[in-house]
Amino acid sequence: MDFSFIIQQVVNGFSLGSMYALIAIGYTLVYGVLRLINFAHGDIMMVGAFLAFIFVGLLTGWKFENVTMPVFLTAVGFSIILTAFIGVLTYVTAYKPLLDKNAPKISLLITAIGISFFLESLFNVIANQYFGGNYQSFYFPKWFSQVLHFGDVTVPILTILVPIITLLLLGLVLFILFKIKVGIAIRALAFDIQTVKLMGADSNKIIAFVFALGSALAAIGGVAYAMAYPSIDPYMGVLVGLKAFAAAVVGGIGSVTGAVIGGFILGFVEVAIPGFLPELGGWKDAFAFILLIFVLLFKPTGIMGIDFERQRF
Amino acid sequence: MKKKLLALGLSALVASTLMAKEIKVGILQPLTGPIAAFGQKTLDGIKLAHEKYNKLPNGDTIKLVIVDNQFDKIQTVNGYKRLVSGENVVAVEGPLASSMALAVKRFADQTQTPTVTQIATNPRVTKNSKYITRACFTDDFQGTVAAKYALKHGLDNAVVVFDMKQDYSVGLAKAFMNSYRKGGGKILKTLYINTGDKDFNAQVAQIKKLNPKFIYTPIYAPEEGLFLRQLRAAGVKAPVMGGDGIADPGLLKKLAGKAANGVMYTDHFDAAKAPTPLSAQFIKDFKAKYGRLPSAFAATGADGYLLIYNAVKQCNTKANSENTAQFKKCVNNAIRHTKNLEAVTGYLTIDPKTGNPVNKPAVIEKIVDGRTEFVELVKP
Q1: Is residue B357 part of a domain?
Q2: How many inter-chain contacts (A to B, CB under 8 Å) are there?
Q3: What are the structural domain ranges in chain A?
Q4: Is residue B319 part of a domain?
Q5: Mean pLDDT across the stretch A177-188?
Q6: Do B222 and A233 touch (CB under 8 A)?
Q7: DSSP letter at B20?
Q8: Considering only CB atoms, which chain A residues are within 8 Å of B166?
Q9: B53 and B126 part of one domain
């Protein structure tokens, strides 16, 4: 167990953790505003990855191997925008009517599960109908597969890039929440929707923005995940979504910084278990959730535990 | 009065000659879900066989009732019940995949419905069951074939990677290890994965450290593809072999790219080696209809159907058609006593006691430059 091995595991943990973090932010934002656990969020991440795959195909004339950097970035850009739009669409078509009728929270939760199944099945049909099977190889420019050497430690560029992007996006989200009007409105909404409405603010627009922001981040997470493990399928969001949800809870649901911290912790656990205790490699998913239970036993509100009556995000 | 009787008799006669009956056979396969590709290929084979062999000697026809089980145990059981009690089928073909076949086993015996699982290879599927019959070899044989092949080529130490969540994978790993140890091979380590895993770097790191001569991976193709990619990226060059669960060269190539080259697997059928005249005709018709060669899934799908068709042909008497339970019993008995039935993967003879075919050979296939190549045919 030499030093370089440990560094290697730390780097891998950071990278995996960032992807969970990107998705966890979406859970936390929506929960903070609506008190809704948006179980379809993992599938939104799948939608992001799949749309990037489809756009790469469209832009290269279905010759996926020829993907170049500008084409790839354009495809990812389109995917982020469209995914954000789909996120807003789920809110407008499914959640908003329920909220307007003051439906109980449990109905929203069941709706979220329904949307999750809908998205999975939709892309199942698309994948089988147009791409000849559920599992598709995800193509991206060769540049991302480069490997950097630091002594004994080998680091794929992607492994460094993803955490950097995650931290930048975290900065962006915090900036939006604390410095920009719409962010302040989101925080106000999280305190008390009724009062915000009384003040004449359009709560629907703000909530729609929250869904767009969360979905866009999930799309980026999905693309990163698809690049790290270059295969996509309509069910890829299920387990990742569940883990990102666990990350959000571990970090303290409702807190954006907490979501990122939770994501990193979960990533580390998942890399460290098979790395240091290879015998237990097959049980790494179980450990991720044992960690969740363990943290909640000692700190029921999560690490960045928020007292919900006083503070948001 | 006389007139009335005559009319009645006449109408009955007309009804019996004009309205040749439809006899329903249920098809329960994963047409959507993670292994939809396997189910669709199977269905292609079944449909082609049904097109050619749907007429019964007395003019009745066989009608397929197709149900999707989504590779999900609950859907499988529900679908099975629907076929048996809702549609009143005389027999069911499916489900593909051992874990799903095990899920319907109890219901097959309870409802006394002859069930032919054409490609579920786990030995437990037919064990102690009177109504599930298998149309393919078992994992015990498949594992032995792989072990013997490895030992014959001097690959005398191995790492086994298997999927804890799949009955098929666990059973096949066990069969391989038993046979491999008996033959003098050494198992360096068994490593676990889970269905749906995408990161195998931990397992690959272990394999790299152990440096085995042979790697046996009785898992399914979606995991195998990414496993191969990560294995070869880490510089491990040892030969890799799997069972029929990875027999999807297109998917392996898609997921693993160049890393798919050199991987071997045991399979039921190779379209380049037609074992019977019927098989040769089937391959020709299949190519004409679908524009490609039949896979092992299509071939075994057709075999399962032919087993049922042959049995229904024998049992389709007037007395039986009025009594479904009796009909089903007869069909089951006929399936279990099939002898030398000419089918697509060879001649089928079922052992009435175990419900398994006897003397079913396996082929070993290898992916070379993205194409599948025939390595050898192994007989029990």
Answers
A1: no
A2: 75
A3: 3-237
A4: yes
A5: 91
A6: yes
A7: P
A8: none
A9: yes
Q: pLDDT tens digits, residue range A43-76?
A: 999 999 999 999 999 999 988 888 999 999 999 9
Give dist(CA B74, CA B22) in Å, integer.
Answer: 29
The answer for A283, left when phi > 0, alpha when psi is -120 to 50, beta otherwise, is alpha
Cβ atoms of A132 and A55 within 8 Å: the answer is no
Identify whether the C-beta of residue B51 lies closer than 8 Å to the C-beta of residue B309. Answer: no
Residues of A with CB under 8 A from a CB of B: 12, 16, 121, 124-125, 128, 132-137, 228-231, 233, 235-236, 238-239, 274-275, 278, 281-285
What lies within 8 Å, CB to CB, of B196 at 6+ separation is A235, A238, A239, B223
Contact B202 A233 (CB under 8 A): no
CB B119 within 8 A of CB B307: no
Question: Three-state DSSP class for B26?
Answer: strand
Cα separation of A229 and B229, whole Å? 10
The rounded distance, in Å, linking the Cα atoms of B9 and B4 is: 9
- Could you write out the three-class secondary structure of B152-173? HCCCCEEEEEEECCCHHHHHHH
How far CA B337 is from CA of A139, B100, B341, B366, in Å, comes to 52, 25, 10, 35
For residues B38 and B167, membership in a common domain is answered with: no
CA–CA min distance B34, chain A (Å): 6
User: Which pLDDT tens digit goes with each residue over B190-222?
Assistant: 998 888 888 888 788 889 889 999 999 999 999
Indicate the Cα dihedral angle B262, B263, B267, B269, nearest 10°. Answer: -30
Backbone phi, psi, residue B132, to 5°: -100, 125
Q: Do B32 and A233 touch (CB under 8 A)?
A: no
Alpha-carbon dihedral of residues B66, B70, B72, B74, nearest 10 degrees?
Answer: -50
Which residues are CB-neighbours of A72 under 8 A, at least 6 positions away? A56, A140, A141
Q: Closest chain A residue to B189 measured between Cα atoms?
A: A279
Q: Is the peptide bond before B249 cis (omega within 30 degrees of 0)?
A: no
By DSSP bridging, strand B240-242 and strand B341-342 are unpaired
CA-based nearest distance B123→chain A, Å: 24
ipTM reported for the complex, 2 dp: 0.71
Across the interface, do A231 and B255 touch by the CB < 8 Å criterion? yes
Total domains present in chain B: 2
Number of H helices, E strands in chain B: 13, 14
Measured distance CA(B363)–CA(B380) in Å, rounded: 11
Residue B184, token pair as written in the block: 């003098």
Q: Which of B34, B40, B254 sits opposite A137 (nearest CB)?
A: B254
Q: Is A26 helix (H, G, I), strand (E, B) or coil?
A: helix
The pair of three-digit structure tokens given for residue B304, joined into one six-digit string: 């399962």
**Both structure tokens of B195:** 């269905």
Please answer yes or no on whether A282 and B194 come within 8 Å at the CB atom: yes
> Which domain does B170 fall in, by range?
140-267+363-378
CA distance A278 to chain B (A): 7
pLDDT in tens, B12-34: 544 444 567 899 999 999 988 77
Residue B354 lies in a domain: no
Position B300 in a domain: yes
Q: Are residues B117 and B75 in the same domain?
A: yes
B128 and B147 housed in the same domain: no
**Average pLDDT value for residue range B222-226:** 93
